[in-house]
Amino acid sequence: MVDTGFSSFDTMVDKANRLLKDVEEAFEWPRERRKQSYAALRAVLHPLRDRLPVETAVQFGAQLPTIVRGVYYDGWKPADTPVKMSNEEFFARVRSEFPYAVEGGDEKLVRTVLKTLERHVSAGEWEHLKSRVPNSFAALLP
After folding, report:
1. Residues 27, 11: Cα–Cα separation, whole Å
2. pTM for the predicted model, two decimal places
3. Furthest CA-CA distance within the chain
4. I need a surface site. Which of 14, 23, 82, 101 has the fewest CB within 10 A?
5. Which domain of life is it from (predicted)?
6. Which CATH superfamily is domain 7-138 in?
7. pLDDT in tens, 25-60
């Protein structure tokens, strides 16, 4: 547990760390690779956010831990969304934002991060998210 001296901040940091730890555990990465788990999360969050209709993107973002929510919204231009992209284009964008090699490739990276995110939002919000993306992309969602 982090001790910032302000319990609300401590809770926010702990929730963000839990999500990153879940990514690390899914890939069997040691804690020393925290920068890599953060990069993986960010690389998937941004194209996901950009692919969603604005209202859905906001509803999904509201479910994320506060610190992760800041990462999610960083650089977002709602007027430019949703961006239509094929799964291959989505994977290419993730690859361009993730500077590490992952055994299993881009699809495994995306599926693993999405599965981790699913555990950190409500079931109802996850189902809503799945209903708002094209079927081809929804197939990637757990």
Report:
1. 25
2. 0.91
3. 46
4. 101
5. Bacteria
6. Uncharacterized conserved protein DUF2267 (1.10.490.110)
7. 999 998 888 999 999 999 999 999 999 999 999 999
